[in-house]
Amino acid sequence: MKNEQYGLFKFLSQEEFAKVRKFAGQEKTPFLLINLNRIEKRYDELRENLPYAKVYYAVKANPNNEVIKALFAKGSNFDVATVYEMNQLLELGIAPERMSYGNTIKKERDIAYAYSKGIRLFATDSEDDLKKIARQASGSKVFFRLLCDSGGADWPLSRKFGAHPDVIYNLAIMAEKLGLESYGLSFHVGSQQRDVGQWDNAIAQCRYMFDSLAEKGIYLKMINIGGGLPSDYVQPTNTINEYAREITRFLKEDFGENLPEVIIEPGRSISADSGVIVSEVVMVSQKSRQNRYSWLYLDIGKFGGLIETIDECIKYPIFTESSTRPDFNSNDMREYIIAGPTCDSMDILYENKKYKLDKDIKDGDKIYILTTGAYTSSYSSIYFNGFPPLKVIIDRF
Ligand SMILES: Cc1ncc(COP(=O)(O)O)c(C=O)c1O
């Protein structure tokens, strides 16, 4: 059988892997290596495929200054979740006009602060939040987040954000009365969304809301189609090109050729596949003599940045050095349960999904965890069990 491990080169070119390996030979593990060239490539690809959409990069996905600067230079706008992200961007010289305050959960004093710094675009989904915006950010544009079913998403965002159309309808009317501009609608179909049909449902809901509110004299101008575009993990997805084609078709079916302003807030699809985590095997163990599976303990786990392995939602491509040997085949492999190094028993990465890796793996072997450029370094804990936060190295190759 063909070497499953050899699949590393489905994700990285020979040259890219040579660079990763070079760092692996120099740096202490674990570390995350980010390739800025890939981030820029993903941004360009998105712009080519959705030329009419204004990009607001979701800073939370990878807030590293170098990443933000590269995207800023490309012309990106930014979706910030907190005043901390906002301050970070302001310090980098990014104008407030290039930001939206996309979190629907905000303290009143943070809204006031954002307004004082020049932010004029806010997301909301509740009366409480709307009234705070009205009090502290008079005259601003607001967009209303519709609740979305995240079925089909590897990392669902359902329930916590958004509200049903009847609530949104009332909010849009109230916003105008409170001195705000009811500007548009937003939704998020769930991160790493595999079912492009989810955008169809959400866009149809937007059409319905545009029409209902127009009857009340409120003419919305914008649709924010959120994040959700995929990156390359173990299970393949359609290409960005295919997603974009379908999303464009849905928009045109509902809104015709004269589209409203369209905003997109990509996070994962921009930054995930720019990153490789280089880790090291700490220990291999067998829990009983009959056990079919060995436990493989790495020097990175849930608390070191791989929190998206909760419920095994995100399945990272994981490889060893053998991945580079074409003759390496399934006879040389066995299945492992993979866990992290901390003293917390929930620090298991994959127990249901078994990863096939070299059968003679040993302490100190390097492990390459791919597609880890999004939602990793910013999630890594500060000194839990004394482990330092995930080290990040930024380069271009
Ligand atoms: C409001 C908002 N926009 C955009 C994103 C980015 O989504 P994704 O990483 O799926 O592209 C998120 C992710 O949590 C979000 O909460």
Short summary of the structure?
The chain has helices at 8-11, 14-26, 36-49, 65-74, 83-91, 108-116, 127-136, 165-177, 197-214, 240-255, 268-271; strands at residues 31-35, 53-58, 77-80, 99-101, 121-124, 141-145, 153-155, 181-186, 191-193, 222-224, 261-264, 275-285, 294-298, 318-320, 333-339, 348-358, 366-370, 391-395.
Describe it for me?
The protein has 397 residues and is an alpha/beta fold. The protein folds into two domains: 153 residues, Lyase, Ornithine Decarboxylase, Chain A, domain 1, CATH 2.40.37.10; 204 residues, Alanine racemase (TIM Barrel). 30% of the residues lie in helices and 23% in strands. The strands form three sheets. Strands 1, 12, 13, 14, 15, 16, 17 and 18 form an eight-stranded mixed beta sheet that branches. The longest helix has 18 residues.
**What fraction of the residues are assigned to beta strands by DSSP?**
15-25%
Q: How many helix segments?
A: 11
**CATH third-tier fold name of the largest domain:** TIM Barrel
**Poorly predicted spans:** 1-5
Strand count: 18
For the record, the CATH class of the largest domain is: Alpha Beta
Q: What bound compounds does this protein have?
A: pyridoxal-5'-phosphate
Distance between the termini: 32 Å
GO biological process, one term: putrescine biosynthetic process from arginine, via ornithine
Cofactor: pyridoxal 5'-phosphate
Pathway: Amine and polyamine biosynthesis; putrescine biosynthesis via L-ornithine pathway; putrescine from L-ornithine: step 1/1
GO molecular function, one term: ornithine decarboxylase activity
